[in-house]
Target: Probable GTP-binding protein EngB
Amino acid sequence: MDVHHVNLTISAVSASQYPNTQFPEIAFVGRSNVGKSSLTNVLINRNGYARTSSQPGKTQTLNFYNIEDKLFFVDVPGYGYAKTSKANREKWGHMIENYLTQRDQLKGVITLVDGRHAPTSDDVSMHDWLKYYGIDILTVATKMDKIARGKWNKQASVITKTLHLEAMEPLILFSALTRQGKNEIWQWIEGRM
Ligand code: GTP
Ligand code: MG
Model:
């Protein structure tokens, strides 16, 4: 999709604030700092629209981005970030769980893993959990510009094995710097609208 109009509709802290529309929604999940906001910016062709930061855990709300009045991108707070109170973490956890399991408008979840490393146990739990709930998942390995092209195949198979991806489960190698993978990710999204 060629995106011209994007609007951060709401940074929601509770379900009552979610947009009251029937547009399909695509959520982005992954560990803090993995590159969710950066991927969002590449998909919408806007540098710095979704806030990126070298400080992990910056995104703390469910951010709904209205894309062309056709769909919402939902930037989900990163998991695996400990530098906040336990009560706070639990509160976020419940909101996110409820959103991911109960939101009718949610058509798919893009889960990001760091392409440089094997997925962590948090990544594996998140993937298993989404799968258990029958959620349509696209796995994206980010930061591929940081590893040599000759290692991509090996990395892809490490990710496939560690996350127990099945043959039909898609994995896309992506870089926010080179924008590789952008078109394939859009294709997956458009297939769910
Ligand atoms: P939280 O909102 O804290 O959960 O983080 P996030 O997942 O939104 O990550 P964000 O997009 O803010 O990126 C974190 C850091 O990684 C930033 O410094 C980005 O510039 C960097 N980064 C993200 N994607 C890439 C990439 O593909 N390549 C490189 N080299 N750096 C990236
Ligand atoms: Mg972010």
Notes: Residues 40 and 50 are 7 Å apart (CA to CA). DSSP finds five helices and seven strands in the chain. The helical segments are 36-43, 86-102, 121-132, 152-162, 182-190.
